[in-house]
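Tip: read the tokens left to right.
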């Protein structure tokens, strides 16, 4: 078995995703030269009426970019020299994760799983596990609770 060279870590920027990042980082550390992709999916609501209002806000693109850069910064700081590529996609999380994994030839997908209240709960995780063309490492919330003593 070869080492994972293209590791896709999916985040909703929650504390639990931050915990799951350690697993992705461990995989990257075990394969010198590996690329760690950090993907965030912004779900597009079914109703797109908000676009007209948002486009009227001055500098919305710059504000959004600055906010996302700030959100990715902790991952970059913890990368310990691993090649890290941050990416943002718009759409349905499961579909976008699968499309990104395929486009970037991911060797493994790593994501945290919470029972409720997360982009990466329920349907998105099940969709990725069912349709991914590579292994998927899912870090369940109850493992985090056990490993950190309930944190």
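Filled-in amino acids:
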């Amino acid at each position: 078995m070869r080492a994972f060279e293209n590791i896709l870590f999916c985040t909703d920027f929650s504390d639990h995703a931050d915990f799951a990042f350690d697993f992705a980082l461990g995989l990257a550390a075990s394969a010198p030269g590996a690329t760690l992709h950090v993907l965030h999916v912004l779900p597009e609501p079914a109703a797109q009426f908000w676009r007209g209002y948002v486009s009227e806000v001055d500098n919305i693109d710059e504000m959004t970019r600055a906010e996302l850069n700030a959100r990715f910064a902790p991952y970059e700081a913890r990368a310990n020299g691993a090649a890290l590529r941050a990416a943002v996609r718009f759409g349905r999380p499961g579909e976008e994760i699968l499309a990104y994994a395929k486009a970037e030839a991911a060797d493994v997908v790593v994501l945290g799983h919470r029972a409720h209240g997360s982009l990466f709960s329920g349907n998105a995780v099940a969709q990725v596990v069912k349709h991914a063309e590579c292994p998927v490492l899912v870090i369940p919330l109850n493992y985090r609770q056990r490993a950190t003593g309930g944190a």
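The beta strands are 6-10, 35-42, 83-90, 108-113, 136-140. Residues 6-38+61-140 form a domain with the Rossmann fold fold (CATH 3.40.50.620).
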